[in-house]
Write a structure and sequence with these properties.
Low-confidence stretches: 315-323
Subcellular location: Cytoplasm, Cytosol
Number of strands: 12
Radius of gyration: 22 Å
Strand content: 5-15%
Number of helices: 10
GO molecular function: guanyl-nucleotide exchange factor activity; translation initiation factor activity
CATH architecture of the largest domain: 3-Layer(aba) Sandwich
Strand order of the largest sheet: 4-3-2-5-8-10-11
Mean pLDDT: 83
CATH superfamily of the largest domain: Translation initiation factor eif-2b, domain 2
Keywords: Cytoplasm, Initiation factor, Protein biosynthesis
CATH topology of the largest domain: Rossmann fold
Helix content: 25-40%
Family: Belongs to the eIF-2B alpha/beta/delta subunits family.
InterPro entries: eIF2B_beta_subunit, IF-2B-related, IF_2B-like_C, NagB/RpiA_transferase-like
Order of helices and strands: HHHEHEHEHEHEEEHEHEEEHE
CATH class of the largest domain: Alpha Beta
């Protein structure tokens, strides 16, 4: 499972939809909404493993539809639903307004995505001076959060497991150290030992599923399990477009494992087949994180408990809304 950076994916989808809407100058609102939906389906079909692509496209469609409704009714919506079902009757905006409204909405959303993907993005105040934080694997939001805190003069330290078999812990540790952040690279076997010195675990999963669970690196799941046993909170930095209505069984194809050649030393691969006939190598790169391993999902649009994610996917009026 090779995820493109989530903010890069989001920007690519938004830019594709902007180019599409440009071609629909003179179209009505309903025509533009149908075109956005069709383009989203096309983009998703071209990269079926990248669920974020479909999420972003549907998010764009929802934001444009909401703005059309506001234009028609004159009422400013105070809340926007995460999973909004299209009305039986689409907003019928005249062509003179539909194009400009859609372009303005997409441009504003693109600007927000760029801001969230930068060091100057939303910064959360749950790390105090002197804290020790454990994190696993590189995540753009977690990294930017650490850098932003350090730029503000907050002193803290970070613990990073090696994270086999991805082996990305060393690169992340060196990057943080170069950013003037006190960092310790630890072995995977010592995660529980070092967690006793940490105030919390800060992770950045790839997808948040409808039951409140998540897809993350296998090292992140291991760390979250250790944190639960020791009694340390696990916070996940993510964005709304990573929330999806999928169950774990429908994304099981994303849970790839490392190739045996990446696990065994090169010299051992020269041995005869009989040396390996009783050997099975299980080295998952990605794993499913149970909802009870997560304390909270923290986004730029609010903090969500894992138990609330299911409600976000429910039909109105029972589903939760967010500002």
């Amino acid at each position: 499972m090779a995820f493109q950076g989530k903010f890069q994916s989001a920007e690519s989808v938004i830019q594709s939809l902007q180019q599409l809407v440009q071609e629909y100058d003179g179209a009505t609102g309903s025509e533009i909404l149908r075109a956005i939906a069709n383009r989203t389906n096309l983009l998703q079909s071209q990269a079926p493993h990248d669920i974020i692509i479909g999420n972003i496209g549907r998010r764009c469609e929802m934001l444009v539809r909401s703005k059309y409704k506001q234009h028609l009714t004159g009422m400013q919506p105070t809340r926007i639903l995460l999973f909004e079902e299209p009305d039986e009757k689409e907003p019928d905006i005249r062509s003179a307004d539909a194009h400009s409204i859609a372009m303005a909405v997409l441009t504003k959303f693109e600007e927000k995505i760029k801001r969230l993907g930068s060091v100057g993005g939303v910064c959360h105040g749950f790390i105090s001076p002197g804290d020790t934080i454990m994190t696993v694997s590189y995540g753009v939001q977690v990294f930017n959060h650490f850098v932003a805190l350090r730029q503000k003069g907050v002193e803290f330290s970070v613990l990073i497991p090696e994270n086999e078999p991805l082996r990305d812990g060393k690169a992340l540790a060196l990057t943080l150290a170069k950013s003037n952040i006190q960092t310790a690279l630890i072995s995977d076997a010592s995660i529980a030992l070092h967690l006793t010195k940490a105030s919390c675990v800060l992770l950045e999963p790839e997808l948040i599923l409808v039951n409140g669970g998540a897809i993350a690196t296998s090292g992140a799941v291991l760390t979250a399990m250790a944190a639960r046993a020791i009694g340390r909170p696990v916070y996940c930095l993510c964005e709304i477009f990573q929330f999806c209505a999928e169950h774990v069984n429908s994304v099981s194809h994303l849970l790839a494992s490392s190739h045996p050649c990446d696990v065994l030393p090169a010299e051992s691969m020269k041995e005869s087949f009989s040396s390996f006939k009783n050997l099975t190598i299980k080295a998952p790169l990605w794993a499913y994180m149970e909802p009870d391993l997560v304390t909270a999902y923290i986004t730029s649009e609010g903090t969500f408990q894992p138990s609330s994610i299911f409600q976000l996917a429910q039909p109105a009026p029972s589903r939760v809304e967010f500002v």
